[in-house]
Amino acid sequence: MIIGFRAKGGSISETAEFVNCSRAAVVKVYRAWQNGTVQNQRRGKCGAPRAIDDRGERRLRRCVRADRRATVEQLTTKMNQGATKSVSQSTIQRTLLRLGLRSRRLVRAPMLTAVHRRRRLEFARQYSSWTSTEWRQVAFSDESRFMLHRTDGRWRIRRETSERNHPATIAGTVQAGGGSIMVWGMFSWHSLGSLIIVEGTMDQYKYASVLADHVHPYMRIVLPQDDGIFQQDNARCHTAASVRAWFEEHQDEFTVLPWPANSPDLNPIEHLWDHLDRVVRAMDPQPRNLAQLATALESAWLNIPENTFRDLCDSLPARLAAVRSAKGYAVSQEYNFLLLGMVIAIFTELQKLKKKRREQEKIFDDVHHNDYK
């Protein structure tokens, strides 16, 4: 402060008064700085050194990566093995939080074999040139099951320690979740399709009825130019011989998109199922029987905002890019749609620029060829 105040033109007396020291101290420090024998240095760190230094933090990271499910107690035991100075569990806990290694729920994703990953990667590369325009011609479909009563860990409550067994803090359980309903649905960028309540389990015969009564009319009305594409997964009822024969009979009207196995993270309809589940769980009062649950699901489906399912269709280029980056492994289904929209917009603009550049190069080649003649 002395050097800085004097360098700005302050006199010795003004500097001494500002810093609250003697005039002799100001003269001594400023003269030493002019002679190059003093430097501006940071003050030494205060307090005791950390119990776990940088090297210890790196070791703790390695322990966590070696066993992601290890508890704080287990990590403390590993860190204290062969150490000259032991650390406590609270120290390990604070260090983990400082390193950003927080305890979180496991992300649910399909089990992928090497063959699954290879085919997913091949699929992502095969359709890497598709923009949102091409994906808007695809109708996505899938089945899902909804339980009448379900606690999936999303609910949080606040209670005192003594209120553990209070009725308001208990999530009651019933056998088999009180029953469930299977639904089938389809949608594209243009429109939502039907939501069908499936009695029992979907088999090839029920699926054939769905194709004839719902898929065929939808493809003819919504995608009438014979360039529509229908997406389905590789469930057994979807690949039965009778079902394949039905698609062959209608191959002049629309085609079926080859879909990699175990890839629900690529199907945007999974987000619609999650949307339905959240809407139904937020209802007050809750559905009390399967008939009310079916009505609630149908109502929630009909009220899905248009921008919701359109944004999902437009997210396919970003999803495939994520699969390519992950080398075929599963990608997160929790999208930040604001960021995703930016990524999609950038990706679309890049595709347009590439297409425009190819057209310009073609025109240039044609002109150059004519001049040469």
TrEMBL record:
Q: GO terms for CC?
A: nucleus
GO biological process, any: DNA integration
Which parts of the sequence belong to the Transposase Tc1-like domain? 58-127
Q: Which domain of life is it from?
A: Eukaryota
Q: Which SUPFAM superfamilies match?
A: Homeodomain-like (SSF46689)
Q: Which GO terms describe its molecular function?
A: DNA binding
- InterPro entries assigned: Homeodomain-like_sf, RNaseH_sf, Tc1-like_DDE_dom, Transpos_IS630-like, Transposase_5, Transposase_Tc1-like
Query: Which Pfam families does the entry mention?
Result: DDE_3, HTH_Tnp_Tc3_2
The entry's localization annotation reads: Nucleus
The residues covered by the Tc1-like transposase DDE domain are: 138-282
Alphabetical list of PANTHER family matching this protein? SI:DKEY-77F5.3, TRANSPOSABLE ELEMENT-RELATED
Would you tell me the protein name for this molecule? Transposable element Tcb1 transposase
Which organism was this protein described from?
Stegodyphus mimosarum (African social velvet spider)
